[in-house]
Amino acid sequence: MKFYIETYGCAANFGNSQELRAALIEMGHQPASERDADAVIVNTCAVTEKTERKIIRRLVELQGTRLVVVGCLPSALPGSLRQIERRGCMGPVCGARAKGIIDLFVPAARQRAAGTQPEADRLDGRQDSCGIVNIAEGCNGSCSYCIVRRARGRLTSRSLGEVVEAVRKLVRFGIVEVQLTAQDTAAYGSDIGTNLPTLLGMVAQVPGDFMVRLGMMNPDSALLIQRELIEAMHSPKIYRFLHMPVQSGSDRVLKRMGRRYLASDLLDIAGAFRASFREISISTDVIVGFPGENDDDFNETMGLISHLQPDKVNITRFSRRPGTAAARLYDMPDRIKKDRSRLLTRLWLETAARRNRRYEGRTLEALVTECGRGKTMKARSANYAGIVIYGAPRLGSVCKVDIVGSNPFYLKGILAPEIR
Length: 420
Prior knowledge:
Elements (H helix, E strand, L loop, with lengths): L1 E6 L3 H17 L2 E2 L7 E6 L4 H14 L4 E5 H5 L5 H5 L11 H6 L15 H4 L7 E5 L1 E2 L10 H5 L3 E2 L2 H13 L4 E5 L14 H8 L7 E4 L4 H14 L8 E3 L7 H7 L5 H14 L4 E8 L6 H14 L3 E6 L16 H24 L5 E9 L4 E6 L4 E5 L7 E9 L4 E9 L1
């Protein structure tokens, strides 16, 4: 069978798709273009109504018996697919759990087909050298707005050995950036008697030249392991990078959201990490226009972002999701959400531009992780700052880069004389 995978949503979804791709090839199936594929697999996302509508439109375009729909939409909002199903224009459907998705294809090929290229060969010619490892599925949170819990269930952590072996395999095949992801990476291991710092310590011992990017973690989970996590992140193999969603700067709104921390907790965590890693990059997420958010609440969010000085803010306008507690609350007009989104976006872009300007004139060591547009390559510094390099360093190499410019989104650099 020839297959094509199209993925929407979070890093966990992309990790599931990577696992599926590898498993299908091990079974003897072959990746192909959309047009040539016998199975077109769409890994879906249900996080916002806008994303759901976009995916449904795409499924209608792809409709046919070769269409296989997997991921969060079938798990959380199966009704959204019924119109397509009734037309008989869709093949199998499966939820978001990685094992279930892979098991969907097991009966088609029990043995590896002769002549299938080994995994290592398939990495040749890639446009990037990054791999994703899902360290856990599900979440123990109870956020009033979130539908992901419905799609992925309660926290189920992979064993330490399984994660380490997955990292080892990626590194063996030439991956130089390993992204560890989950709905809440800081909660990893709490269901199996271990924790994230222990995992990071074991991953850092895997032989090879690679860097680890740690995925999103919630403040309440991070507080429980903060000291051990800071210690683990001193490893030179781990990016000095923190992705921690605050969602609101108002404690009143956070309580309505079902978030289990105070806004000040994020500032305290950021302060502790910055005390240990002076140039750590911090990314956060904010939901604007949550039901009941008034002007004072929004101003508190603006104040928190001003104080936090993050390198990136992912801003989402509140989107009512069926079956969630927040869906029953009064939804404010879209124009208010848009106005608040614009104000917050302007603030973080100004902040990011100012923070990135401090690198201009400096020389940074960077890991080349992706091919860019034209004659450029993309790289990451030790604190995960994105760099567009004008030149031709080898994918996966480490090089010295002179920073010659910047904008809110990335740094601009040219190769320094020394290349390693």
